[in-house]
Amino acid sequence: MRARRPSGPARRLRAAARRRRAVRRRVLRCEGRSTPPGRMRSVRPVAGAAVGRAGRLRGAGAAVAAAAALLSLAACDPWHCSFESHGACVEFESPPADLEAARARMDRLLELELPFWDLHSLSGWRIQYRDTTEYVCYLATRNEGCTDYIQHTLSLHVPEDSGGCFEAAELLHELGHYKLGDPTHSNPRWKDVEAAFAGIVWDRPDAPAECRARYKAIYEGMWVVGTDAL
Q1: Hey, where are the domains in the chain?
Q2: Which domain of life is it from (predicted)?
Q3: Which of these, 12, 94, 103, 146, is most buried using a 10 Å CB contact count?
Q4: CA 10, CA 15: separation in Å to the nearest integer?
């Protein structure tokens, strides 16, 4: 007896399932670099997934498109860790001359910034400091920072005029997205980010000399958070 050929909607559902499995395999291959044996990190589900057979059929086309988009983002991006801090791989596109001093500065920076969002560790993630604004972040190709859930990376642009003060990059902002998601900055906690700049970057007894020299007396305008903006 000749097998019955699946209907068009059924074929689309199967295709979507195959693409989701392919995305999962690609992401797990990337995560293998930092995930302990026997543990797997989950990928955020596509928002608004429909429930029920009719909903699944209506959403099949969107699922296929979303899976294809994820595949384009899920290529493994090699990590080049300069050192580790609070569980995170810390990577510099242009490494500081004194990595031991940079490690101490990074440890102190995260001691100040993680508690702001009630965080304790960034185990399994990368903090990447880059020299340009070019970084593919979902639909954006240029940005000051990106919380990349596919690469498990907080990627940050160090301002060109920072004078060696990488602390001025918007890590506190990206930690907020790591904690909350919240791409439209609707949580009231965001309003405190800009005011935290001075106390974290230069206005403290142990602030790096580079940061005091470059940013002393600057209290506003650096870590501005726009509402309904990425």
Answers
A1: 8-73, 83-215
A2: Bacteria
A3: 146
A4: 9
